[in-house]
Specification:
Layout: H1 2-18, E1 29-33, H2 44-51, E2 65-69, H3 74-84, H4 88-100, E3 108-111, H5 113-122, E4 126-131, E5 140-145
């Protein structure tokens, strides 16, 4: 039942975007993946674990290659606030500790919304986040965050 509701929510979001409607759904964040990946959805917790470097796997066991938007991007600030629960300053401090201890590196920064879509579309293991208004058919929506 929960899976059906998630698919319905994604379908409604896509239909609203295609019809050109301007509403609060347009301001939503979309977690995207490559269409060739078998993953059909992902939880906020799984996304947070990947973006904090605590996991490099998607829930289906495939490798995850997360990409980030540029520092100062409003979409990036919203993503880290809603998904990870951190401000940019707190995130910087977190990654400083992780890098210094040799335990990992932050996701690769590729640019803004369009760059993230291009990168994820070109990499089977790609996962990223974008504003819902820029979605296209080159990527698969895994999760919508209002």
């Amino acid at each position: 039942m929960a899976r059906l509701l998630k698919k319905l929510a994604v379908l409604l979001f896509v239909v609203a975007g295609i019809s050109g409607m301007t509403n609060s759904a347009d301001a939503a964040l979309a977690i995207i993946g490559n269409p060739a990946n078998s993953l059909e959805g992902i939880s906020v917790t799984d996304v947070a674990m990947i973006y904090l470097g605590k996991s490099d796997e998607l829930p289906n066991g495939e490798t995850a290659a997360a990409v980030d938007q540029y520092r100062g991007s409003p979409v990036r600030a919203e993503f880290y606030r809603k998904v990870v629960g951190m401000s940019q300053d707190r995130l910087d401090a977190y990654w400083s500790r992780i890098i210094f201890s040799g335990k990992g590196n932050p996701p690769r920064v590729v640019g803004g919304n369009k760059a993230v879509i291009r990168w994820v579309a070109a990499h089977r293991d790609g996962i990223g986040y974008v504003s819902g208004v820029v979605l296209n058919r080159s990527v698969k929506v895994l999760l919508i965050i209002p």
